[in-house]
Amino acid sequence: MSEAATPSLGPVSSSVIDAPHVRPPLLAQSAPWLIFGLFAAVPLLALATGDSFILVVATRMLIFALAALSLNLIMGYGALVSFGHAAYIGIGAYAVGILSSYGINDLLLQIAAALAASGLFALVTGYLSLRTSGVYFIMITLAFGQMAFFFMVSLSAFGGDDGISLSGRSTLFGADLLRSNLVLFYGVLGVLAAAFLLMRMLVASRFGRVLRGTRDNPTRMRAIGFSPFSFQLTAYVIAGMIAALAGVLLANQVQFVSPAYMTWARSGELIVMVVLGGMGTLLGPIIGATVFILLEDVLAHFSEHWKLGLGLILVLVVLGSRDGMSGLARRLRGGSDV
C-alpha cells in the first residue's frame, strides 16, 4: 500500500488522513458499555422470570450482532454493499460441522479452520469483486454467495440440502464448557466485545480514515497517493473472517449446520440489521441486530407474515432517521457517533 502523498497535495493528506482523533462526549463513550452491561444482566432476567429461552434469544442477538458488525466495516465505512456476506457465516458453521464429522471438536482448531477458509475465500472473491463498483459489485457478491451456497448443497457427504446435525458443542482444551448455555452466552458476549474494540481501533486508525476517505471520494484518495483497492480488499477480508467467527458460534448454539445460513436472503437480513441500527457507526449494527431478532421473535407470535410488519417498521425508522436508530438517538442527545 503506497502512503506517499504527492508534494502538491501533501497538506490535503495531512488534514484528511492524519487529523487527530477527536474524543467523543462522555455519554457517547459510555453508551457501548451500557449496552454490553445490559446484555451481561440478561441471565439474571432469565433466572428471575424462570424463562431460559430469554438466554437463547439473547445469544442469537449477540451472534448476529457480530455478523452485522463485520458487514458494517465494508458497508458503513467502505460503501461496499455485499449480498454475499452470509456465505462467510456458512463457511464458519461448516468448519465446525465438517471437522466435527471427523472427530475434531476443539473450538480453537475449528476457529482457525474457519478463519483460514473464510480469509482465502474473501481474498479471492474480493480481489475479483472489487474490480467492479456500484450495482455490479452487488451482483457479483451475490453470485459468489450463491456459488458457495450451491457448493454446500452439492456436498451430499455432509448432509447436502438437509444440513448436518452436530452430536454436541465444541470443546475447549478437552473440556465441554460450552454445554452450558450460560457459558456459551458469556463467551459470545466476550467475543462481540473484543470485535467491537478491534473495530473501534481500526476505524480510529489511519487505515480507517483512508477507508472512509475512499468511501467519500476515491478519486481524491488516489490523488494524494493511496490505493483504494488495497484498503478495500483488506477490509473485505477482515469482515469475512469476523463473519465466519459468527458462523462458528451459531453452529455451536443451534448444534446444526445448513446451507440455509448462506442464502442471499440471510445476507439481506444482515443488510437490514446494519441499516436499521445505523450504517457507519460501531454501535449501530449491534442495536440493529438486537432489534431485528427481537422483532422477529415478537412479531412471529402474531402472524406468520411477520416480515411485512418488520418492513413497515423499517420504513418508519428510515423516514424518521436516515442514519438509523443510533443516528436518531445521537440527535436526541446532541452527541457524536459511537
Provide the fold topology.
Elements: H1 10-17, H2 26-40, H3 42-49, H4 53-75, H5 86-101, H6 107-129, H7 135-154, E1 164-165, H8 181-204, H9 206-216, H10 218-223, H11 228-254, E2 256-257, H12 264-277, H13 284-299, H14 306-320, H15 324-333
Antiparallel strand pairs: 1-2
Helix pairs in contact: 3-4, 4-8, 4-11, 4-12, 4-13, 5-6, 5-7, 5-11, 6-11, 8-9, 8-11, 9-11, 12-13, 12-15, 13-14
Pfam family, one: BPD_transp_2
Transmembrane segments: 30-49, 111-130, 136-160, 181-203, 223-250, 270-294, 306-325
Keywords: Cell membrane, Membrane, Transmembrane, Transmembrane helix
* Strand arrangement, major sheet: 1-2
The number of domains:
1
Poorly predicted segments = 1-16
For the record, the CATH architecture stands as Orthogonal Bundle
CATH fold descriptor: ABC transporter involved in vitamin B12 uptake, BtuC
Alpha-carbon Rg, integer: 20 Å
Q: Give the fraction of residues assigned to helices.
A: 55-70%
Distance between the termini: 28 Å
Q: Which structural class best describes the helix and strand composition?
A: mainly alpha
Beta-strand content: under 5%
